[in-house]
Design brief:
Elements: H1 2-23, H2 30-48, H3 50-60, H4 65-132
């Protein structure tokens, strides 16, 4: 029974940390804050009412409540890692798009600069020819 109290204590500490992050200046994205709060509430309810976990134990085949809580945490961590991978992949795609746009704009600026400098060189040559006459 003491193991359940340790898990409840760790869950309370995690919840306080999440609340600290939400109300401090170091905010996460609102979607992540809501997701973390949902996960926290779910784990807290399952920790406080282990009777709910008995159904999960029987359906999954876990031996005791502590292992059921551990299995739930592992599943939650898999979801979090997948979500982080999805965000990183989206940012990689956006970064690639931005790098391509910057490269294209640099190319346009260089080509416009060359065209402008060649026009100014030709106008200088015309001015020199007219002075020599």
């Amino acid at each position: 029974m003491i193991n359940v109290f340790i898990i409840i204590f760790a869950t309370i500490i995690l919840g306080l940390y999440i609340l600290y992050r939400i109300f401090s200046g170091k905010r996460l994205h609102v979607l992540y804050e809501i997701s973390l709060l949902k996960i926290y509430v779910l784990v807290m309810v399952l920790s406080l009412f282990p009777q709910i976990l008995e159904f999960i134990e029987l359906s999954v085949g876990v031996v005791n409540v502590v292992l059921a809580i551990l299995v739930i945490w592992i599943l939650v961590l898999f979801v979090v890692v997948f979500e982080m991978y999805r965000v990183v992949d989206f940012q990689r795609q956006e970064m690639t798009k931005l790098v391509r746009e910057v490269a294209f704009l640099k190319f346009e600026i260089k080509s416009n600069f060359k065209n402008d400098s060649s026009k100014s060189d030709s106008s200088k040559d015309e001015n020199k020819k007219s002075k020599h006459k």
